[in-house]
Design a protein that fits this description.
This protein has 326 residues and is mostly helical. It has 16 helices and three strands. The N terminus is likely disordered.
């Protein structure tokens, strides 16, 4: 497992290449630093995936306001859309005027939005350094991504945040009127922090990334385990990818394995909305926690969104404890 993560966990230690920076191209104050993503990193598939996931999420949240985000750097830098998103997620109303073309007014609005974000997230000061009003206004994609990922985790966005997204960056500093460059690797996401802890890559990461041919064998075994018990209720799993996504089978399975009846008023027997399905999955996870199962590396929202890896993790968690029960 450690070999799989070695590249992602190590900083970029290659020697700094010779770079030519013309001072006139960078209007920087003495001692100022500026961070830029290297061109090759901008084409990284995982970075593109993360960016698109965040754009789709924002557009879904703001569709009732007829707001469409197409480019994170251009569309978020003045604070207007960020403010709308924060109001929608938090339910609070920001007492600021609409953004004007004036850069001063834009920065004032953006600073108020960032201050409110930091209060909502209740982060220590060192965390807030990942984004500032100045960095967002200057269209710093790294800062924008850090901010949006933090918001998505805090407000439990119903999306799957790609794990281990990192970019190669060049940090430019003006010192003694000379521009100096340093290359590093910036980690945008690690593991899924929204579920209460940091996790090492597990067997399912390996299966999906390196042994997809063995995935069907695992799925077949888990389906057999589930059906051995669900058949007692005349239920049968034929499509593991979809039949667990509303949480009902997980709830019934826990009741069968633990020997109790789950009252129908505790969950939605025929859930129709996303919220009802998330409620069911969270309730199932609570039942597993009460039964002493270790916390699965999965969120209810991911299961509802048909994330197969999350579904497998939850079902395997159950299988591990109850596999010997007949």
């Amino acid at each position: 497992m450690n070999d799989l993560d070695e590249d992602g966990n190590n900083a970029l230690n290659s020697p700094t290449k010779s770079l030519e920076f013309a001072p006139e191209n960078f209007a920087m104050e003495e001692g100022e630093e500026r961070m830029m993503i290297e061109p090759d990193s901008r084409d990284d598939p995982k970075l593109k995936e993360l960016t698109q996931v965040l754009i789709d999420w924002m557009n879904e949240e703001l569709k009732d306001q007829r707001i469409i985000v197409r480019d994170l750097e251009e569309d978020l830098h003045d604070g207007q859309i960020l403010g709308n998103l924060l109001e929608k997620l938090s339910g609070i109303k920001l007492e600021v005027r609409e953004v004007m073309q004036s850069e001063i007014f834009q920065k004032q609005k953006l600073q108020m939005v960032i201050d409110t974000v930091n209060k909502q997230l209740n982060l220590p000061r060192w965390n807030q350094a990942k984004w500032t009003a100045d960095s967002i206004h200057s269209r710093n994609l790294i800062s924008i991504l850090h901010l949006l990922v933090a918001l998505a985790f805090h407000f439990k966005a119903p999306i799957r945040i790609p794990e281990f997204v990192a970019v190669n960056v060049v940090t430019i500093q003006k010192k003694d009127n000379i521009l100096q460059a340093k290359r590093t690797k910036e980690n945008i996401t690690a593991t899924n922090e929204a579920i209460g802890g940091r996790f090492e890559r597990d067997a399912f990461d390996t299966l999906f990334d390196h042994a997809p041919d063995k995935l069907n064998v695992v799925k077949k075994s888990l389906i057999g385990f589930a059906n051995k018990h669900l058949n007692k209720l005349n239920l049968e799993v034929t499509d593991l990818d979809r039949q667990f996504h509303d949480g009902v089978y997980f709830i019934l399975l826990m009741g069968l394995l633990e020997g109790y009846y789950v009252p129908l008023y505790c969950y939605h027997v025929t859930p129709e909305t996303f919220e009802e399905k998330v409620h069911n999955c969270n309730f199932a996870l609570e039942l597993m926690d009460d039964a002493g199962l270790p916390k699965a590396k999965a969120r209810a929202e991911d299961v509802v969104n048909l994330d197969l890896k999350s579904t497998l993790r939850v079902l395997y968690n159950i299988f591990t404890k109850y596999k010997h029960i007949t």
